[in-house]
Amino acid sequence: MFEELKTHFGKLVSLTPEEFAYVSSHFTSRKFRKHQFLVQQGSPVSHDFFVVKGLLKSSFVNEQGKDHILQLAMEDWWISDYQAYFNQTDATLDITCVEDVEVLCLSLANREKLCRELHQIEHFFRKKSNAGYVALQRRILSFMNQSASERYHELLQMYPSLAQRLPKTLLASYLGVSRETLSRLSA
Q1: Cβ(54)–Cβ(102) below 8 Å
Q2: Is 162 within 8 Å of 133 (Cβ atoms)?
Q3: What are the two backbone dihedrals, phi and then psi, of residue 105, each rounded to the nearest 5 degrees?
Q4: Any idea where the Cyclic nucleotide-binding domain is (predicted)?
Q5: Across the beta sheet with 56-61, what order do the strands follow?
């Protein structure tokens, strides 16, 4: 399970085997079954999750009961309720397993410790945060400037395997369209 994390870190920083052993000692591994919660609205958020295997969704259910998907995460991606994680407050989002999942969990205390002690880890998380900001901005702008069809085709182009793994109802929710509209778009 830690081999995937080593490869992931290696894309942005160089760590000696000893440094990686030290870094990986700050993570815990967990397995979850399909439909289980990693994070639930109203509960404390103690970890950031690196996805080793599986597919997750981060969502918010509004007062009318409509599920709004903010983020999806598959292998080699990170996911958490970052507002709650960094501010150490209760979750405003649910994070649930779309498939059976294996994750590596990093507490905020361990993340801060690693960033203080190893410049490469601080650099790694800064780069990951920057990429996350860019992705979030792109997603928001796509809702403001693109049609449902354009959003759907962009998702297919950028993440073809993700679109195939995601049930149609969740794909529709992620794109901000009805299931019927998605059927028309994919026809």
Answers
A1: yes
A2: no
A3: -105, 135
A4: 30-116
A5: 37-39, 94-97, 56-61, 67-73
pLDDT tens digits for 7-57? 999 999 999 999 999 999 999 999 999 999 999 999 999 999 999 999 999
Distance CA 50, CA 140 (A): 23
Q: How far apart are CA 83 and CA 57, in angstroms?
A: 16
Residue 148 burial (C-beta neighbours within 10 Å; 0-12, 13-18, 19+)? middle
Place of tokens 């901005």: 137
| pTM over cut 0.90 | yes
Q: What are the tokens at 129?
A: 């945060």
Residue 82 CB coordination number (10 Å): 17
